[in-house]
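Hey, can you fold this one?
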Amino acid sequence: MSAKMVCVLSPRAPRSPSCSYLGLIHCRGPKLMGGSLFTLLTMYGQVLPFVALSFYSTSTTVENKSNPHEMNIVLIVLACCWGVSVLTFFGLVDRDKWCTFFWTITGAQDTVKTFRSSDNPAIKMNAIFTNHSSFTESIKDEVIAYMRDNWAEWVRTQPAWFTPKFIASVGDEFIPGRALQQLNDTAIEAGKLGRERRKILTLSSMKEVVITLTTVDTITDVYMIYLYKVNGLHSNANTMIAMISINVVIQLLTIPAQYKKKSWTTKLKEGLITVLFLRPFVDAWRVHNQHDDVENTLDCKAETIVNKGIELATESIPGCVLQCFVLLLDPGLGLGAIASVLISAFTTGLTSAMIAYDFDTDEPHRQLQPKFYGYIKDGRRGRTFFLMTMISTLHNLSRR
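Sure. Predicted structure:
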């Protein structure tokens, strides 16, 4: 079995893990993959299945192979549909944003440019304190001088963005000496050791329908485990069980960090929700009702993104790859196996499209980086989102 798996999957070995998430159009961002690398790897991801097929068709070690000619036709159809979807997508979005899919600006350059070009203090501070400190190391003295000149005015006027949460995210070196001393004195009078400090983690939102579809994906995985057991494919069934177990274990490990200020009763309750596979439903309910708790490390949307990312990385994507591999070796598994692959690819595609959609239509993102975000036009949001989903789903199917 291991020799066969190496033969079939070896063409995929050079693939970067980020390729699995190329449907996330916001990954073209300078702070993530970058526009040029995003486009290059997307094209690479479309070519790779044909390379894998050539290895598969010439292999002499794989038994009961599917018809390579038929598989080639399927790949060509998928690639053509993907290409048409991409061209239509670019026809719908704002042409002024086309360059963002190809530019080579880095995250540090983009952050510095945002700070220097904006006249809005909120945008300046968001650029500095929601990104890694290495992005702004070159202008640290400039930032300190700017904050020294404006801190007293912010304390006096109390703008909407100048919140305790923001102040907690600012390092001591950026706060003027007298103001820093006042913050520490106030905290000590309240019985604390010093002023509150907090590291900010900015994550995208996620719609509850995507989380619910994740449960459908999990149900199909359970069905595939049953199907493998019935057909005597015990090693493949055990591999699927291991993937689901790893997903659950990693999500359990995040609970102490997310609920570190909560009692053990709350932590055990959250653990039970995860073990019983109710996490997608609970996350969906919390996002829908904006159920945020100030004592939690992350808000409900950020927690949802973390859980979803863990599931994609440990269960959905590797599970789909395994199912495709088994289906190639045993085409007689039936329509249920094919349906499971399709559901997994669609769920991943819809999720990635939703994250990219949320990033682009989020007003703070558009205000912070107006030249980058805003490619989705207001009058075409539905059609654009549909094409984003199609592009991601077809891309996932062709690579798998």
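Residues 109-189 form one domain. Let me know if you want another pass with a different chain boundary.
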